[in-house]
Amino acid sequence: MTTIKLEPKLTPANKKLITNDWAERFPEFKVYRPMWLLRRTGPLIVGVCLNYTPGYDTYRPTFHVHCLARQDSSLSLMLYQGLATKRTGNEESIKVRFHYDHVDKATERLKEQIKFPMCGAWNLGDVIAAYHNYMPDRASLPGICQKTQASPASIHL
Predict the structure, then answer these.
(1) What is the per-residue pLDDT across 48-100, written as a single tens digit (0 to 9) for each?
(2) Rounded to an integer, what distance in angstroms lies between the CA atom of residue 134 and that of residue 156?
């Protein structure tokens, strides 16, 4: 583990460093904007969003999928799955100050937890299997899809 510490709050410089660190660990993804990585394959956009909390002192790595075949003015975050803690399975937050102490293990755990191919090609069977794996973990359908204000038309990969 490195002893480098970032400032305790997210600054534009910290956002860039954190985004680049995650992008290095997900080489098939491109930086869409600070704290957000995307990969397009066919009609699907797969992403890792590093959602920051209101205090700007922590961020939450979150995986999602968006289907471009769905006509919508916003980017839907389907298969929305945050990084789960090992002990409780709750969504984990990473303190900005300790980013370098946690980024390696956090990226590896997120890759293990995601039930969707993160690299290489995938087929319809992979997509259907990912949705089937995702659904039983959810108590109700309305929580399956989160929305963001990004416009699908504004994504250029």
Answers:
(1) 999 998 999 999 999 988 888 877 777 677 778 889 998 898 999 999 999 99
(2) 27
